[in-house]
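This part of the workshop introduces the protein records we will be handling. Getting from the letters to the tokens is the skill we practise here. An example says more than a description, so a record of this kind follows:
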Amino acid sequence: MLYSAFILGLLGSLHCVGMCGPIAFMLPVDRSNSFKKISQISIYHIGRLISYSLIGLVFGLVGKSLYIFGMQQQLSIAVGILMIILVIIPYKTIGKYNLSKPLNRLISKVKSSLGSALKKKTADTFLTIGFLNGFLPCGLVYMAVFGAIATGSLLEGSIYMILFGLGTIPLMTCAIYLGKFLNQTIKQRIQKAIPVFVVIIGVLFILRGLGLGIPYISPSPVVEIATSQMNCH
């Protein structure tokens, strides 16, 4: 399932450009020097990947805790259903409940620190901007977080989020270089494709949790395999 993280980031990166594009456009890169420009943008992306990896570790730990209690399959099914529900239910409906209210104070601090970092031009600025950028609220990141939880592992949770971040790099880099380069028609087509792909990932998580014995898609539970091997002996 790790490959789904990269594809989610790649296809959803247009959404990332819409959400984080203003930050990308405001990066204080040295446009007079190509080498500096490339290195500064690379450091910015490294900062984002570091924050994503930390998020993956935290939520991978949550998944591992549930895995220890034998809830790996139920967790995978629950994550898949949640992904599909969040795509189907209109954003305005979810917004009424203001679920992010407890985090608003923390988010405001991140935004404040980010604003200060954007005014600087020191070597570490781009790493700081990228790192803080990774913690800004984003619906697509939340979807990736669900995937990290479903891995049931600290390492795989971290890798899942890193792969997601890597998937967003190509389009985000183009946005920094070229600005708003996609016409509205292409944007609308990609935006329509994102929910469809999220639903597909959700279905894959559900199938994995069901353990139907389908190689790579819905493998049989480890316990069931071990039991069948013992019976053979």
Summary: Residues 223-232 have pLDDT under 50 and may be disordered.
